[in-house]
Amino acid sequence: MKGPLFYSKILLFGEYGIIKDSRGLSIPYNFFKGALKKSDHLEGKALESNKNLNQFAVYLQEVQTESPDLVSFDLDSLKKDIREGMFFDSSIPQGYGVGSSGALVAAIYDRYGKDKITVLENLTREKLLRLKAIFGKMESFFHGKSSGLDPLNSYLSLPILINSQDNIESTSIPTQNPDGKGAVFLLDSGTVGETAPMVQIFMEQMKHEGFRKVLKDQFIRYTDACVEDFISGNVKSLFGNIKKLSNVVLNHFSPMIPKEFHQLWKQGIESNSYYLKLCGSGGGGYILGFTEDLDQAREALKGHRLEVVYNF
């Protein structure tokens, strides 16, 4: 048995903001992927994955009991496959903000979901919201609370435009320019980030009126502008807004930025050779970078590994 491949995702814009109804844009990232497989001899990561799937199956039974109108699964087949050595074979790094649990959730729903919404049907807004709700419930097993966007992106393998919590749509983004000098890239922080503690910090900060004002007047405003610029291909305006967004994150979201990257972050803004932003919840994992000149950014970030995600 080898299941279809499910890809990682990158939330280009909208981290934290989408909790408070900013816009967001999430794209599939085919460099990392995962699939359900079986083996007679489980060891190492495969054995660990199999044990996790066992716990996940117990959780899905609870979800089905609590929300029978939302989703139901072929639990007998799922449990049988787990007993027979099923695991999720994935190259998606965990705790890096690129959707490792999202791909697994999408794979399980795809194989074991009953009366499932398929990617081939006409995906109305209602269907997208229903899928998002199902995936949010499923992925909560891994994060305590989930928006459901990561699995949705992985399941559909399409860019998702988030207009607000209850207004999402699949969208198209401008075709990449393989010869372009500009790029979106991933920068490896070298440490794993945990989602739950970062979200906890954010929620604590939200208790302060000053932070809420910054979030509304600056963070969400620049995020929305970046989404609009990216989708419409307005690169000049995009970089102006990303610089402002990067600055707001450095000044007000510093606990989410690994300490050793504060200086690099500042350096990018001051030199204009690149701008950094959070990839997912932060705290480690990948950091997203935007540059109008990739060679210049590589030079400025010597000693760090850059993975190009998109070329302008």
Architecture overview:
The chain is α+β, with helices and mostly antiparallel strands. It folds into two domains: 6-170, Ribosomal Protein S5, domain 2 (2-Layer Sandwich); 183-311, GHMP kinase, C-terminal domain (Alpha-Beta Plaits), CATH 3.30.70.890. It contains ten helices and nine strands. The chain has helices at residues 44-66, 75-83, 100-112, 125-143, 149-156, 195-205, 209-232, 235-252, 262-271, 294-300; strands spanning 6-13, 24-38, 86-90, 160-164, 167-170, 183-188, 275-278, 286-291, 306-311. β7 and β8 form a beta hairpin. The model has no long low-confidence stretch (mean pLDDT 93).
Q: What does the largest sheet look like?
A: 5 strands, antiparallel
Structure summary, number of beta strands: 9
The overall number of domains is 2
Low-confidence stretches: none
Helix and strand element order: EEHHEHHHEEEHHHHEEHE
What is the class of the largest domain in the CATH system? Alpha Beta
Distance between the terminal alpha carbons, to the nearest Å?
39 Å
The radius of gyration is 20 Å
pLDDT average, as an integer?
93
Provide the CATH architecture of the largest domain: 2-Layer Sandwich
InterPro entries: GHMP_kinase_C_sf, Ribosomal_Su5_D2-typ_SF, Ribsml_uS5_D2-typ_fold_subgr
Protein name: Mevalonate kinase
Keywords: Kinase, Transferase
GO molecular function: kinase activity
